[in-house]
Each structure stands twice: as C-alpha cells, then as structure tokens.
C-alpha cells in the first residue's frame, strides 16, 4: 500500500506532500549534518525526487554550510526546517518533521534501519541497530 504524507510547518505557511516508501531512513552522525542542522545526531529519511512535491523556493528560507554543498530549506515565518539537500543527492526530510505531523510519533514504516557515519559521532548510542562507521552502508 502506498502511503501519502501531508506535511506542513508549525505555522502552516509551507506545505509539502511525500508519497510512497523512503529510499532510506537512518540516524546520521556525520560532522556535516551536525553543522547543517545544529543537532548531535540527525534522524532522517531520504526520498526519490519524484515522490516529493517540494514547496516553491520563494516560500522557503535557504541555509547553506560554509564551503560545502549542504543545504537546508524551511519556513521563514516559523523557522521550521522542512527538508535538506546534500549527499546522497536526494531530498532529505528529518524524522522530526514527520513526528510533528503525526501526533508526535514517527510513522512505523519510516523507522530508521541503522546508524551512519558512526565513526564521526559525538554521542554513543546503545541500541540494537547496525552501526556503520562511515557512509558505505548507503553507498557514500
Ligand atoms: Zn511556518
Ligand atoms: Zn550526515
């Protein structure tokens, strides 16, 4: 069964629709994500381009890290980050965005499968998921 996720920011200014299954769902511990999102660990999903109706750029703020092709986009009114664009080159949406639009819970089919770039971590995680020291588990 194909899922459809209607997502909006906290204030409702930015909306987007995501369909189908994510290409990946994981926790990223890389230094670049840490810098871009200002979070110690990033829970994220990645999607095929055609499965995401992205908002028009004119509705979004755009934040880019210094010297890297790491981008994040969000609502200029409430400040909520809606998606990112970085490796592996597909739209990336944080678990947190789905939680906020699903009564505080991550939809079970979007559950993360592993920890990526665990070798770059600043926080040790004691769970049963695989820990990949680098990006090789998703071909990075
Ligand atoms: Zn907003
Ligand atoms: Zn990362």
TrEMBL record:
This is CENP-V/GFA domain-containing protein. The keyword Repeat does not apply. It comes from the Bacteria. InterPro entries: CENP-V/GFA, Mss4-like_sf. The keyword Zinc applies. Pfam families: GFA (PF04828). It comes from Salinisphaera orenii MK-B5. Belongs to the Gfa family. Residues 5-119 form the CENP-V/GFA domain. GO terms for molecular function: carbon-sulfur lyase activity; metal ion binding. Keywords: Lyase, Metal-binding, Zinc. Gene3D superfamilies: glutathione-dependent formaldehyde- activating enzyme (gfa).
């Amino acid at each position: 069964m194909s899922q459809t996720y209607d997502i909006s920011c906290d204030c409702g200014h930015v909306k987007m629709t995501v369909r189908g299954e994510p290409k990946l769902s994981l926790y990223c511990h890389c230094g670049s994500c840490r810098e871009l999102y200002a979070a110690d660990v990033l829970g994220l999903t990645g999607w095929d381009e055609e499965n995401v109706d992205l908002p028009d750029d004119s509705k979004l703020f755009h934040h880019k890290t210094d010297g890297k092709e790491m981008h994040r986009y969000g609502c200029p009114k409430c400040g909520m980050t809606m998606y990112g664009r970085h490796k592996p080159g597909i739209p990336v949406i944080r678990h947190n965005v789905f939680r906020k639009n699903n009564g505080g819970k991550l939809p079970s089919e979007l559950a993360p499968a592993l920890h990526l770039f665990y070798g770059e971590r600043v926080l040790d995680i004691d769970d049963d998921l695989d820990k990949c020291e680098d990006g090789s588990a998703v071909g990075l």
